[in-house]
Amino acid sequence: MQTTSHSFKRPEADLSTLELLANQFPNVDAAIAESARLAAVQTLPKGVVHVISDIHGEDKKLQHVINNASGTLRPLVEELFAETMTEAELEEFLRLTFYPAEVTSRLTETLTTPEAIRAYARQMLPPQLELLRYLVSNFSLRLATTVFPAEYRELLLEMMHAPSTERGPEFIGAMLDELIRRDRALHLIHLVGRLIRNLAVDELIIAGDLWDRGPRGDRVMDYLRLQPNVEFIWGNHDVLWLAAALGHEPSICTVLRISLRYRRIGQLDEGYSVPLTPLEHLARTVYADDPAERFMPKGQGMRPNEVVARMQKAVAVMQFKLEGKMIEQNPQWELDHRRLMHRIDHAAGTITIDGETYELRDTHFPTVDPASPYELSPEEALCLDRLKHSFLNSQKLREQMRLMVGHGSMYLKRDECLIFHGCVPADVDGHFLPLTIDGQSVAGREMFEKIEHVVRRAIVDSKPRDLDFLWYLWSGPRSPLFGKDKIATLERDFIADKKSHRETKNAYFSLIHEVAFCDKVLAEFGMDPDGGLIVNGHVPVKVEEGESPLKRSGKAITIDGAFSEAYGDYGYTLVLEPDQIVLAQHSHFESVEAAVRDGVDIVPKVQTIRAYDSPHRTATTERGQRIGYRIAMLDRLIEAYQTNRMHERAVGSTR
């Protein structure tokens, strides 16, 4: 009898759990086959993981770094086809591999006959399929084919098995002829090119700071959401944008101020439908005669520099007011010394900070009432209300934030690497510093996990206290995403004396040069100190000054390579391969147009960080651990079938 139910003799919690797995594997043979498949997968080389940090809105450079797999695709292509392609053919093939959509789009204009399309397809498809076979061989077939375009999955699998004794050139030729007849040959070449890129990197991890300073943080997220397997580790700029998207007023002002300073207005009005008209109106009226010399933007644009400078100053003053109010409402932060607006002596033109009085180089504060320095003027309140409405009603901004939080975390463990954005706050003796979260004092790993809980809660409930905490993560002294005693924005804007600009880094950044402290951090997060590597971004490596990203301990590495042009235009990818860990240093990227037209590429400098005696296998990775748990569950399911504690079903039967 073929039963349609996984009934069992007595109700048992264990069997109720296994019943869910039995829906996929309804009998002994199905479960054994899957267990055997997974056991084989454990022997495959581990997947290649790429870690990039601190993109800061540099969308075009990121696109190319992803397209060329951080420089790893070029040497692979050269190795596979050096004997069969000329140098010009290699460059043409690489251009197609890096930019399949752009190249095939141009070809639709130049290849105007079926014969020309057929000749191009016969030239490019064979090496594409050979490269695809090589990449697929590193994956289980099930995992690899999940990224195949669904409509062409069967066709591509047939093509990958040709040529063979039974499948001569006419086999592929018949497929091509039909595709050409239906005007889909170039489309297929485009899809295979994209598939090659997707399989070149098993997992892409973004280690924080997608926004600010670079031109288009929105396009950074647009491109990342197209990748098949991407994970986010949150940085302080990310949680600032999250708070702004959720309507947190001090964070909105901070996001606007940074965008105006670097003249990155397009990502707001064009990208997120947040028009700056209310702020421009405030600048043209209340600040109409203000020279705002200290607020001149970096770069040029449609609006006059003077107008953008006044807009930046106007929103900066609003930021300082709102931050002062918020700090007063959160005494547990112990940041009262950072409430600065009431410390201005308007008559003397000075400000007193930490007991020292400084002369102000800008004393024009048309919206500040010395008697109530933290209150917004009516004009400011109206401006902010309209801006806040735009942030809260930006569908694209909200969708991107949900993606970042849903696929994000405070830290990740991959292979031997512990990856987070900033630091583990510590004192000079290496003791982890505590932070009060939800009334509980926590430090180290527990701090990270509590923060993760608050971030996920904030995007659901948007409670004012949680949104305030997101701001603290942006610039609070105990924030593991920030790692300094302050962010001296007001001082840099209004005080000439650079002594007031000083920001002191947390002791963590010195301690990671010491082996003992690195071992302590690794152990805190459940990592084996032997062979473990701490990976963080956040603090740009001074590449031009010869600073090394690898710390003296040999157990910590900083991968913020100043990716954005505003920071230095370099950037790093940490590549975790089966047989080694390498650091790829990127240089300036001209443009997508130059890459497609002239084959311009970023060929990175590569530094070996770790080399292994034998390649690491899937079984030793986090994915391998999950597979191991699944095999154990299948063992229990098989045992339940074999002892007749659960009834088997025929494959294809329904409940």
Description:
Helix content is 47%, strand content 10%. With 655 residues, it is α/β, with parallel strands linked by helices. A hairpin with a 2-residue loop joins strand 10 (435-437) and strand 11 (440-442). It starts with 12 loop residues before the first helix and ends in a 13-residue tail after the last helix. The mean pLDDT is 92.
How many helices in DSSP terms?
26
Q: Find the count of extended strands (DSSP E, 2+ residues).
A: 16
Distance between the termini: 14 Å
| Unreliable runs | none
Note the main sheet. 7 strands, mixed
Structural class: alpha/beta
Name the strands of the widest sheet in spatial order.
7-3-2-1-14-15-16
Helix content: 40-55%
* Overall average residue pLDDT: 92
In short:
With 655 residues, the chain is of the alpha/beta class. Strand 8 and strand 9 (417-420) form a beta hairpin.
Topology (SSEs and partners):
Layout lengths: L12 H10 L5 H14 L7 E4 L6 H9 L5 H9 L5 H12 L1 H11 L3 H23 L4 H5 L7 H8 L8 H13 L3 H16 L2 E4 L10 H8 L5 E4 L2 H10 L3 H13 L4 H6 L5 H9 L19 H25 L14 E2 L4 E4 L2 E4 L18 H15 L2 H12 L1 E2 L1 E4 L2 E4 L14 E3 L2 E3 L1 H18 L2 H12 L13 H6 L13 H4 L3 H10 L8 E4 L19 E3 L13 E5 L3 E6 L6 H7 L6 E7 L10 H21 L13
Parallel strand pairs: 1-2, 2-3, 3-7, 9-12, 12-13
Antiparallel strand pairs: 1-14, 4-5, 5-6, 8-9, 10-11, 14-15, 15-16
